[in-house]
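Incident log, structure service

09:12 report received: a user says their structure output differs between two submissions of the same chain.
09:20 pulled the input from the user's history:
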Amino acid sequence: MSIKTDRFATLERCLHVEIIGIERAFSWRRVIHRVLCCPDRRFMFWWRIANYLYHSESKIKCKLARRIEFKIRLKYGPEIGLGAKIGEGFGIPHAAGIVVSDRCIIGKNFRIRQNTTIGVKRGDTTGHIKIGNNVNVGCNSCIISDNLTIGNNVTIGAMSFVNKDIPDNAVYTNTITPLIRIVDTQP
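09:34 re-ran on a clean worker, output below:
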């Protein structure tokens, strides 16, 4: 199987899982029907198409991919880099305020909530953020590092800041004890 057919098969598999659902057989007619009838699936459809075009060797397809990505970013909100490699089962329950770097390699069944950033510290390095399968990221989380690995079956709690590796089968939360201090304004 050539690389081109393998990438197209991956696109179909991702659309099957994310747009149609596993319970029904794949067909392009079903994909188009779901996209037209279910507005919540339109972003994922267009991002997958743009990502597929971006990774082709054609400059024209790459330019078209950038145009699609720009339009869906304006319409739907999430800023997910076209260079990101995301496995099937990618889900965004609430799309507001999501930023994913184009240097992310993400496994299957990844869920990300609103106001979450996944990115690299500096744009001039060659590091990647690698996220395993079955990872769930809570809202208002920030995953920032130049080289970072998050294992499989990981849950990252809401309002977490991640800048170190997380092993497989872990639950990661930041425990911040609220401190209330009363300031005496009288001399």
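09:41 both user submissions now match this output. Likely a transient worker issue. Closing.
09:42 reviewer note: The radius of gyration is 19 Å. Helices lie at 3-20, 28-37, 42-54, 59-76.
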